C-alpha cells in the first residue's frame, strides 16, 4: 500500500505492492480465477506478480508459468508443508518472504496475487500477509455453503461464487444462494463468476482497482 | 529456583513448533526418505533423527551457529554464512537452509531486533546469505540468549520439525511423536553436554538424507520445501 506522509506526499521512494489473497476449497476455481485475473489486470496496466501455495505438487505454479499469461519469473511457488491454512494464517512467513523477494526482483510491482492451497471453509488469511483477501466457492459445492457460515465465507473482503453456469445442472437456485451469501456477510461484496468463460471477471477487477489499488 | 523462569519461558516461546518462522514447511529429508521406502515407522524415524543430530546438527549447524554467535560484526557473520554455503554440497539443502533462515530473520526484523535488521541488509544484497544456523545465531543474540540457550533452541527446533513432518506424512501417530521427541531429547542433551573446541570445523556426513533432499524437485508429489 502507498505510505503517505502527513502532507500527502509519498514518504518512501519505493511503494510496496498490494498483496491480495485468494483462498477457498479444493476445486472451487482459485487457479482458474487467477488465470482470468492476470490478463484482465495486465490489460489495465497493473504491474503484477503471483504466488501459489501448492498443497501437494507444484501443479498450480507450473500451470500459471506455462500459461503464457505472465513472465514465469513473476510466479513463485511456496510449499505448504501439508498445512494450507498455516502457511497463510498462523505462520505466513514463507509467503511474506516470497512476496518480499518478488518486490526486490521486480521493483515497481503493484499487485501480488497470493493463491492459497485448497482448504476448507475455515481458512482465513493473516492481515500481516495480505491487504485484501477473497474467498472462492462454487455452486457445485452446494448452495448450502453460505449458510454454513465458515470464517472464509463470512470474513473475506470479497466472496466469489464461481461456476455459476453449472447452477441449473446441479439443482442450485443461484439467486437464493447469492442472497443468502449477502445475508450472512451483512451485504459485504459477493460477486458471481464463470471463470471458464471469463464472465464476471471485469467486476472483480473493478473492485480490486477501487478497493485495493485506489485507482478509481 | 532451579532455573531462570524468564529464560525458560523465552526458550519455550522460541523453541515452540508453532513459532512462526516457516518451520512446518521443511521436512529435511523425511518426506524424501519416506517416498523412497527408507522410512516407514517410528524406529526408522528415530534413527534418522539421531543421524540428523549427531552427523549433521552437532558437527555442522552447531559449529556454524557458535561461530556466528561469537562473530564481532555483520561482516564476520557473513563470512560464516558463506562458509555454510560452501560447505553444503546439495543445492536443495542450501536453498532450504536459506529459505528457512531468511524466514526466521524476517520475523525478527519485524520484531525490530537490531542485529537482525542490520544483518538482513547484508542478506538482501547477497543471494548466498541467510542460512538457518546463522539466522538462529543472529536472532538468539537479539533475543538475549546465551550461546547455550541458542544452541538448545536450534537443536530442539530441528527435532520438533522432523517429528512434526513425520506426523503429517502419516509415518507416526501423535503418541509415537512424543516417544520420538523424548528419545531425541535425551540424545540432544548428551550432545549439548559436550562442548566443541573453538577451532572445530563444520562437517557433516548424512548421504542418504542429502540425496533424499536433493531428489525433491524430481518428485511429482511433494508437500515440503525440503
From TrEMBL, chain A:
**Which Pfam families does the UniProt entry name for this protein?**
cobW (PF02492)
Cross-referenced SUPFAM superfamilies: P-loop containing nucleoside triphosphate hydrolases
* UniProt keyword Kinase, yes or no: no
Family affiliation: Belongs to the SIMIBI class G3E GTPase family. UreG subfamily.
Q: Where in the cell is it found?
A: Cytoplasm
Q: How does it assemble?
A: Homodimer. UreD, UreF and UreG form a complex that acts as a GTP-hydrolysis-dependent molecular chaperone, activating the urease apoprotein by helping to assemble the nickel containing metallocenter of UreC. The UreE protein probably delivers the nickel.
HAMAP family assigned to the protein according to its UniProt record, in alphabetical order: UreG
**Under what name is this protein listed?**
Urease accessory protein UreG
Chain's role: Facilitates the functional incorporation of the urease nickel metallocenter. This process requires GTP hydrolysis, probably effectuated by UreG.
Under Gene Ontology molecular function, one entry of this record is:
nickel cation binding
GO terms for biological process, alphabetical:
urea catabolic process
Q: Which residues form the CobW/HypB/UreG nucleotide-binding domain?
A: 20-190
Amino acid at each position: 500500500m502507498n505510505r503517505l506522509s502527513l502532507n500527502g506526499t509519498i514518504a518512501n521512494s519505493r511503494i510496496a505492492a498490494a498483496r491480495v489473497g485468494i483462498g477457498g476449497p479444493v476445486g472451487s476455481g482459485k487457479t482458474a480465477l487467477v488465470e482470468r485475473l492476470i490478463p484482465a489486470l495486465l490489460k489495465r496496466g497493473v504491474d503484477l506478480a503471483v504466488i501459489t501455495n501448492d498443497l501437494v505438487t507444484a501443479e498450480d505454479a507450473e500451470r500459471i508459468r506455462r500459461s503464457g499469461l505472465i513472465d514465469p519469473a513473476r510466479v513463485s511457488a511456496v510449499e505448504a508443508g501439508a498445512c494450507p491454512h498455516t502457511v497463510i494464517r498462523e505462520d505466513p512467513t514463507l509467503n511474506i518472504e516470497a512476496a518480499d523477494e518478488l518486490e526486490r526482483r521486480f521493483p515497481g510491482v503493484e499487485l501480488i496475487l497470493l493463491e492459497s492451497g485448497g482448504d476448507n471453509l475455515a481458512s482465513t488469511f493473516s492481515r500481516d500477509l495480505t491487504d485484501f483477501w477473497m474467498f472462492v466457492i462454487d455452486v457445485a459445492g452446494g448452495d448450502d455453503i453460505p449458510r454454513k457460515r465458515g470464517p472464509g465465507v463470512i470474513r473475506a473482503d470479497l466472496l466469489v461464487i464461481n461456476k455459476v453456469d453449472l447452477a441449473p445442472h446441479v439443482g442450485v437456485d443461484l439467486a437464493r444462494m447469492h442472497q443468502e451469501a449477502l445475508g450472512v456477510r451483512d451485504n459485504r461484496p459477493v460477486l458471481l463468476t464463470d471463470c471458464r468463460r471469463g464472465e464476471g471477471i471485469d467486476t472483480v477487477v473493478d473492485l480490486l482497482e477501487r478497493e485495493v489499488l485506489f485507482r478509481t | 529456583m532451579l532455573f531462570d523462569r524468564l529464560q525458560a519461558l523465552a526458550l519455550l516461546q522460541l523453541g515452540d513448533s508453532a513459532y512462526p518462522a516457516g518451520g512446518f514447511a521443511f521436512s529435511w529429508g523425511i518426506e524424501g526418505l519416506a517416498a523412497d521406502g527408507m522410512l516407514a515407522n517410528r524406529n526408522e524415524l528415530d534413527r534418522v533423527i539421531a543421524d540428523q543430530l549427531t552427523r549433521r546438527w552437532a558437527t555442522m549447524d552447531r559449529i556454524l551457529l557458535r561461530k556466528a554467535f561469537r562473530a564481532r560484526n555483520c561482516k564476520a557473520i557473513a563470512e560464516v554464512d558463506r562458509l555454510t554455503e560452501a560447505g553444503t554440497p546439495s543445492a536443495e539443502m542450501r536453498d532450504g537452509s536459506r529459505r528457512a533462515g531468511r524466514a526466521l530473520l524476517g520475523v525478527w526484523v519485524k520484531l525490530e531486533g537490531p542485529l537482525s535488521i542490520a544483518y538482513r541488509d547484508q542478506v538482501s544484497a547477497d543471494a548466498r546469505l541467510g542460512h538457518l544456523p546463522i539466522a538462529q545465531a543472529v536472532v538468539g543474540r537479539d533475543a538475549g540468549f546465551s550461546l547455550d540457550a541458542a544452541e538448545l533452541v536450534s537443536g530442539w527446533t530441528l527435532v520438533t520439525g522432523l517429528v512434526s513432518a513425520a506426523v503429517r506424512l502419516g509415518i507416526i501417530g501423535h503418541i509415537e511423536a512424543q516417544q520420538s521427541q523424548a528419545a531425541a531429547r535425551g540424545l540432544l542433551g548428551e550432545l549439548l553436554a559436550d562442548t566443541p573446541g573453538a577451532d572445530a570445523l563444520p562437517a557433516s556426513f548424512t548421504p542418504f538424507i542429502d540425496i533424499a533432499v536433493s531428489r525433491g524437485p524430481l518428485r511429482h508429489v511433494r508437500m515440503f520445501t525440503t
